[in-house]
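Submission sheet (multi-component)
Chains listed below:
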Amino acid sequence: MSSLAVRGGRILDPSQGLDVVGDVLIVDGRVAAVGRDAGRDAGEVLDAAGLWVLPGLVDVHCHLREPGLEHKETIETGTMAAARGGFTTVCCMPNTEPPLDTPALVRWVRERAAQAGLVRVLPIACTTRGREGRELADLAELAEAGAVAFSDDGEPVADPALLRRALEYASALGLPLVEHCEDKALSREGVMHEGWVASRLGLRGIPAAAEESAVARALALAAETRGHLHVAHVSTAGAVALLQAYRARGARVTAEVTPHHLCLTHEAVMGTGESPGGLAYDTNAKVNPPLRTRADVEACLEGLAQGAIDCIATDHAPHALEDKLCEFDLAAFGISGLETALALCLSLVHEGRLSPSRLVEALTIAPVRALALDRHVPGLGTLAVGAPGDVTVVDPQREWTVEPERFASKGKNTPLAGRRLRGKVVCTIYGGRKVWQE
Amino acid sequence: MPAWKRHHLLDLDELAPEEILLVLDTAEAMREVLSREVPRVPALRGLTAVNLFYEPSTRTRASFELAAKALGADVVNIAAEQSSVRKGESLLDTVRTIEALGAQVLVMRHWQSGAPYLAARHTRMHVVNAGDGWHAHPTQALLDIYTLHRHLGDLRGRKVVIVGDVAHSRVARSNAWGLTALGAQVVLCGPPTLLPVGLRPGEDEAAAMPSVQVEVDLDRAIEGADAVMALRLQRERMEGGLLPSLREYVRLYQVNAERLARARPGALVMHPGPINEGVEIAPEVAVSAQSVIQEQVTNGVAVRMAVLYLLTGAKA
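Outcome: structure written.
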């Protein structure tokens, strides 16, 4: 019998409305007791005085790049990055090469993750065969193999008739459809948000309407089919308003937002003015959906606080150096975000714009509820007795500088390089085992 | 002659008014050099300038080549489509190769906005932006401003209308920065689909964009103008619904004699070239006494000589 106690920290478990100072006792990989002195007799003790003790964080949207894109990331390096970022469960997207559209590949990903042994990986499988948007993939077989949701992420399901069928079919399986809402005809060749920064820099823009119109369409279909739609990476005020409206009408809709869409604007592409010419054309700020205006950022934050958006998901998108060190148009889209997500979001707490409990909820029980993950892993995202022994220990005041070259992720592509953040994961425990410790 | 402190010339947005005026003064001196029987001064002798052009060009490239040679520099021309770029060599590798060959000045034209900024971060050579995508064309704007200055003197309060495909124009952008820095009143005019999004900034964006007026009606915009600059219209704009037809564009936005009559008498007519005959400017206006289009080209060599001279901090 192995036991580990995390003692004397501030335990924040929004799923139980818990905010107390005490111990979390993990026995044989499961939460055995929570409370004052609950860990007194444990075999191994971790002193968490002055620190926050959270359920292991859950990221429902990340890209592990394996199979096929191992130069950008592998399941091993990606899960190491997750552990460093405090995430004990990640859902990986299927836009690999080949894409995860067969049961064999879904099983393969789960086995690779088990081999790496670092954190829990729950695969998301393709909605359509080959992610080509023409035919449904074998959704039931994929579910049987362990897929927890479906998505063609990176691409929308552009044909609304097919999206409708996908929603109907997935709904019968009780699994959500995670949709990347983007009208490609409107966003065509755009490389950043269509606004004054794009005009200033002479770059082709992606209008907000490219997302909003696609969200509107997807929501209408979700309402009609009563399927479960989960809107990926919301970035516009318009999308937030639509989510509010449809939720009020009772549609089965959930949504996520990334840390960068809560904290950064399109001005990040210009940089801080220190590079030659004063304009950075920072490809590390090139992401899809793009970083948008302050009004959009405010709306997303408000949406998260009020519940129009359920949870935070990183959309961790690692790339190799050469994919970003080039002309802006040619650079790949994506931000490597697992290792900075919590700290970046904590800045909102430090500024008083988001409560600690709502932040923790948005990274633990809320994503679990959004994708109904507790069907697959009971107790996930909580510190209830019997739940998996996944715990994240955070020093909310520790200051540190973002140094991408020291990331565990192969993806060093972050617009936060050199930035000073306050709040750091000091220990990540998965199944009662420390998978990361400072 | 006072030396500049700049290492690169990427756009005019960073230049203080005094720096622009220094270029104009230096260009005037270079114009004098060009008028000599042997139009040469060895200020840049021993220096190598490379023209790296990823887009075709007549004026700008020849102009830079003549400018560098007039100053005694050695010039190498690399046209991307005839270089190892065709074999897939990246921009940064190309730039590093040129630096390794011993060049000190890199004059770059690229279809991608921001490309010279990327290059400048990875080289010790002086980078001169000869046009990057839609973004900037600082030497064109400088020669436009020099031309205006020769005719109008102090540009403060002068009204300059820039008409055409503003959204995709690096000439319009650089001119907007340079002219507003010198106190001119700039009006950008064109069909709504060809005007940049977000040009008129909100309160928190005031410092990031030059303060220009935007107008879709050319007849209104051109009232009392001291100069009107027509931009080249690319025929591809008819695709993708940006313009219904050439005919409609000509009817609404061509700089013709009737419209020009609404400007100040003797207002200058300009165009960065190459001109689409019969489109942006009515033929008789293009060759009229008010047109300074050929003079712009001539001034281009003097202005580029001034830029090369100031950037390399050469002593005459």
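Remark: DSSP finds 13 helices and 18 strands in chain A.
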